[in-house]
Automatic annotation (TrEMBL), chain A:
It holds the Pfam family FecCD. It is found in: Cell membrane. This is Iron(III) dicitrate transport system permease protein FecD. GO terms for biological process: siderophore-iron import into cell.
TrEMBL record, chain B:
PANTHER family: HEMIN IMPORT ATP-BINDING PROTEIN HMUV. Part of the ABC transporter complex HmuTUV involved in hemin import. Responsible for energy coupling to the transport system. Residues 4-233 form the ABC transporter domain. This is Hemin import ATP-binding protein HmuV.
């Protein structure tokens, strides 16, 4: 575990530094890091502190959030195919953002879009809670999440459908692909408190998730409060996924694939998988965001497209491996 | 000292009484077999007594806080759920959760408890194997070891020996007997009346939502009770090797 932790944190650190020194502005490695740390006047410091640093920080935070939420969701539902988007928060956050773009709120007010997305996430999570109830089985939670996701997707399509303005429609489509381009430190400050708070909540589930390996009955009899766990899971996931979607759009497959990849390395224990997946998610999104800038630097390749392009085949391979092991 | 006491205990589901008017107490050093036909309410009785489902009347376990209950009783459900491919000793270590404060990592004491449980269930050679790759019977033994590692005064197990081979069925019943002679108590639901008669110190017969008999196996398993409750005839004899109970024919 400690070896895996060291490896993953070193990996994330290397990717973070790489993310800082890559960009269209052609600055040398030593020079750019000096400009970041030492500051001073000039465009170099501005590029480093206002463009690359927030981008790298967001990639790390959002990746960690997605990985962590995915591991928590899979552990709670005891299903390796569960995804943090399952409870409908990412769908409703996206709807909030789409409405902000469509109504012009996003253009009129600099942080109208992330704030509208957060509002969407909050409404989504309360609707899911109202539908699924504070107690009850994981099945009702999944069903409520699917219902809210479907509803949010339907409204998003409706907005696109009726959009009189092709530019707004275009912007909506590109926003929904997920990206970290042109984000500022203010985006970091919007997302950071929610991601930290939600991550603390999700990490506190560690022991309960371990106990759930034996099923709900055995876990409850060992003194695990399932009702409280469920609330912590829902609100923790809503905080990290709502915040991530609000600043970066929908970035798929990270929460699904990262826990799956790391599970064998932590002895399949769901509690330990939480930490590992947070690091693994950070690494995956940092790597994807570096790839976005390296592969097609002039074409504004979207981050969510890259994670899906990498994640989907990886996921297929994992399904194939699971099938082979099951026989 | 009573480890479990139920007073005027009942369970109602969908306006139907599943159990009613149950009063019983389990003291130290007992190996209690809960027997009864399918659907009699054995599982419901145990789950309700633990406070896992709503019930009427009084149960000494249901009134404990969740944390205290985890140290007072270990519960082995009938569904042998193992969600993730963890190794055997990690799974058995889960039984120590009620003894750990939040954030505390397992100590030597916890590891010793796991070793004892593995030894009792004849699993020491399996400790590093992946649970989900073991056979069904082996998995059942791992889960029993998990409950044993909890080292609680009372162990409640729902059909723990179903699906085990004869040697491990007998060995498991014997380890329950050992637990009972150490001053713990064990409450198990069973369908194998022969093993129940032979190993349990006391049998509680559940039928039609109530207790129809409660006492030493020889007194409980009368021809009348066996016919009325289980609809069978049976052979029962106290031999030098212990009680022999063998079901013979269906009597309807």
């Amino acid at each position: 575990m400690t070896r895996l932790g060291l490896f993953l944190s070193a990996f994330v650190a290397v990717l973070f530094m790489t993310a800082l020194v890559i960009g269209p502005a052609n600055i040398g490695v030593a020079q750019s890091l000096k400009a970041l740390v030492a500051g001073g006047e000039g465009p170099m410091t501005l590029v480093m502190r206002e463009i690359r640093l927030p981008r790298a920080l967001l990639a790390m935070m959002i990746g960690a959030a997605l990985g962590l939420a995915g591991a928590a969701m899979q552990g709670y539902l005891r299903n390796p195919l569960a995804d943090p988007g399952l409870i409908g928060v990412s769908g409703s956050a996206a709807l909030g953002a789409v409405l902000a773009i469509q109504t012009g709120l996003a253009a009129a007010f600099a942080f109208g879009l992330p704030l509208a997305a957060l509002a969407g996430a909050v409404i989504g999570v309360f609707l899911v809670m109202a539908l699924a109830g504070p107690r009850g089985s994981s099945l009702t939670l999944i069903l409520a999440g699917i219902a809210i996701s479907a509803l949010a997707a339907a409204f998003t399509s409706l907005v696109l459908n009726l959009s009189p303005n092709p530019f707004a429609a275009n912007e909506i489509v590109f926003w929904m692909m997920g990206s970290l381009a042109d984000r500022s430190m203010t985006h970091v400050w919007i997302a950071l408190p929610l991601i930290v708070l939600g991550s603390i909540m999700l990490l506190s589930l560690s022991r309960g998730l371990d106990a759930l390996t034996l099923g709900e009955d055995a876990a409850a009899a060992m003194g695990i409060g399932l009702g409280r766990m469920r609330l912590t899971l829902i609100f923790g996931t809503a905080a990290v996924i709502g915040a991530s979607t609000a600043v970066a759009g929908a970035i798929g497959f990270v929460g699904l694939v990262v826990p799956h990849l790391l599970r064998p390395l932590v002895g399949a224990r769901p509690g330990r998988l939480l930490w590992a997946s947070a690091f693994g998610g950070a690494a995956m999104v940092l790597a994807a965001d570096i790839a976005v800038r390296v592969i097609l630097p002039t074409r504004d390749l979207k981050l969510g497209v890259v994670t899906a392009l990498v994640g989907a085949p990886l996921f297929l391979h994992l399904i194939y491996r699971t099938r082979r092991d099951a026989v | 000292m009573s480890l479990l006491s139920l007073q005027d205990f009942g369970v109602t589901r969908r306006k139907r009484d599943i159990l009613r008017g149950i009063t019983l107490a389990v003291g130290q050093g007992e190996l209690v077999g809960i027997i009864g036909p399918n659907g009699a309410g054995k599982t419901t009785l145990m789950r309700a007594a633990l406070g896992l489902i709503d019930a009427t009347g009084h149960s000494s376990l249901a009134t404990l806080s969740a944390h205290e209950r985890g140290r007072a009783v270990a519960w082995l459900p009938q569904s042998r759920e193992i969600a993730w491919p963890v190794d055997v000793q990690s799974l058995v270590m889960l039984g120590r959760i009620p003894h750990l404060d939040s954030g505390q990592i397992p100590s030597d004491r916890d590891r010793a408890a796991v070793d004892r449980a593995l030894q009792r269930m004849d699993l020491s050679a399996f400790r590093d194997r992946t649970v989900t790759r073991l056979s069904g019977g082996e998995q059942a033994r791992v889960l029993i070891a998990r409950a044993l590692a909890q080292e609680t005064p009372l162990l409640m197990a729902d059909e723990p020996i179903a699906g085990l081979d004869p040697a491990h069925q007998i060995a498991t019943m014997r380890s329950f007997t050992e637990l009972a002679s150490d001053g713990h108590s064990v409450v198990v639901s069973l369908h194998d009346l022969g093993l129940a008669a032979r190993h349990c110190t006391r049998l509680i017969v559940i039928d039609k939502g109530g207790v129809v008999a409660d006492g030493a196996p020889k007194e409980v398993l009368t021809p009348d009770l066996v016919r009325d409750t289980f609809a069978i005839s049976a052979f029962l004899q106290d031999t030098p090797d212990g009680i022999v109970f063998q079901p013979l024919e269906v009597k309807r």
